[in-house]
Amino acid sequence: MGSVVLVHGWGGAFSTTWQRSGFTALLTDGGKHVIGIDLLGHGEAPKPHDPELYADLTERVFDAIDAESPDEPVEAVGFSLGALTLLRAAIARPERFSRIVLAGIGQNVIERDHVGATRIVEGLERVIAAEDADTAPDLDEMDQTARLFVQYAQQPGNDIRALAAVMRRPSAGDFEPDDLATITCPVLVVVGDRDFVHPGDKLASLFPAGRCETLKNVDHFATPEAFGFFDATLEFLDAI
Description:
Number of strands: 6
Oligomer: single chain
Helix content: 40-55%
């Protein structure tokens, strides 16, 4: 029975992203051992407010897979921030992964949207300032993407200050094509055609064994719950 590590996105958690949708149950039914983690600042993990403490998000990934699958490489599925974290992990230790699904990332890996990230941070800080002043934040002043991220950050169980610190963490630098080429295991990039990171085919082409699956009429936050994502991922992992 192969092991699959699941890594949620920013503002999510193992329970809300993977368990609530029934995806973990489908993997288990397909003969997989699921390794679930909460990234630092999310779910049941500690939630510090110092951006410096989020410099290496791969630590919890490696802690989990080294504990539960010390002798065998694992399959991995990541969404958004989780997918970016898996990329960092696979570049650092490619021998630990046998197959990787990267959902909710694409063109943003190749052309970093620093302006968009800045607007998201500004939106989060505006909400935090409003909370400190006991007033209502004006979401209408934010662009659509920043407003969506702010609303996502305000879901029950989230710590918006910790999530803002995640966004403000020290940069690990851009992903270079030569680094991505070291990930030689099969890689599936899954992106919705209404996702702001669409398309994903150029990213997929940078992996020696990469391919892209585009989901019709699916936006960013809907990706990990889309039936097309389920089908493509379960087939790729041979869990059907």
